[in-house]
Amino acid sequence: MKYMMLINLGPKARDWRNLSQEEQKQIAQGYQALNSTPGVTPGIGLAPPETATTVRVQDGKTLTTDGPFVETKEALDGFFTFEADDLDAAIELAARVPAASLGGAIEIRPIQEWSGS
Known about the structure:
By secondary structure, the chain is of the alpha+beta class. It has a single domain (2-110), classed as Alpha-Beta Plaits, CATH 3.30.70.1060. Helix content is 23%, strand content 35%. It has helices at 11-14, 21-35, 87-94; strands at residues 2-9, 40-45, 53-58, 61-66, 75-83, 105-110. The strands form 2 sheets. It has a 4-stranded antiparallel sheet with strand order 2-5-1-6. A two-stranded antiparallel sheet has the order 3-4. Strand 3 (53-58) and strand 4 form a beta hairpin. The chain is flat and about 50 Å long.
């Protein structure tokens, strides 16, 4: 089963500049270790939520809003995929994501394969 691992940063990890050099180094090493885990396909990181543009269509008109749609303490920071035998293995890996130890959360979602027929 393939899982999408959505990395949501908590307030501490979002303010990277206030972390010590040692904390920043440990976080970088943690992500490097994840990326070298069998079954992991590294994803991409995202710019801060303040840079987002939210798009909606109402009554046939495209409406845009600067920034994220909702106020939240956590912000989507990036994602990666993980091919695992089961959800327990995905949970075990998610617990190793540095953001999870810094007040953030990792959302795990099974990837749906579409047949295209």
